Amino acid sequence: MPENTPGDTSVLTRLFNHNTWANLKLLDFCAGLSEEQLDATVIGSFGSIRDTLVHFVSSEVDYVNLATDRLPAVPLPGDDFRGFEALKEGVRWAGDELLGLAIAARADSLVRVTRPGEPIFEYPLAGLMVQVLNHSTEHRTQISTIITQLGIEPPALSGWKYMREMGEFRTENSNIRT
After folding, report:
1. How far is C-alpha 107 from the chain's CA centre?
2. In a designed cystine with 139, which of 56, 94, 125, 176 is the match (CB 3.0 to 4.6 A)?
3. Which parts of the chain fold into alpha helices (H)?
4. How many other C-beta atoms are found inside a 10 Å radius of the C-beta of residue 143?
């Protein structure tokens, strides 16, 4: 395995690009669900499919805001569902911003959050990046579970599927399965 050169960000880039790809893939899939299906939930999940989509996309935008005090030109409307295009725009904006933050993060990079009426919080930017990827993965999994309980096959969001769609996964023997 070749060694990474100092400053090589290919792994971070891949992780955050996969996160954005998976979020968009799930949003595209869910756009084809009925209103009743979007309102479905199961015990152990955050809430309905619709509410969970809004929650994790809004959270990604908020993570950027926590670290940079920036918001997209057209901010997401909080907890309200304003359609799939608004959520996709939020995912794209946050994905680009979060990748930039991840690449810039160093061991001593700290996020200091000061919001009126709240205690001041401080934590490593690298820790926030862990939260970003974990949070989205958890909620995509919850939504996939709800979709499965509806008797529908959820979209494949794995790293294998991502590599295939990006043209990066190749086999020399067509009988090999992953």
Report:
1. 23
2. 56
3. 10-30, 35-38, 49-68, 84-104, 125-149, 159-165
4. 27
Rounded distance, CA 177 to CA 157, Å?
A: 17
In the beta sheet, which residues pair with residue 110?
Answer: 124
pTM listed for this prediction: 0.87
Residue with structure tokens 């939930």?
41
Pick the CATH number of 10-162 from 1.20.120.450, 1.10.3720.10, 3.30.310.50, 2.160.20.10: 1.20.120.450
pLDDT digits (tens, 9 = 90+) for 95-106: 999 999 999 888
pLDDT tens per residue across span 75-114: 776 677 888 999 999 999 999 999 999 998 888 888 888 8
Reading phi first (left if > 0) and then psi (alpha if -120 to 50, else beta), residue 83 is in left
Q: How far apart are CA 143 and CA 45, in angstroms?
A: 8
Tell me 100's DSSP state.
H
Cβ neighbours, 10 Å, residue 127: 13
Which of 16, 4, 6 is CA-nearest to residue 102? 16
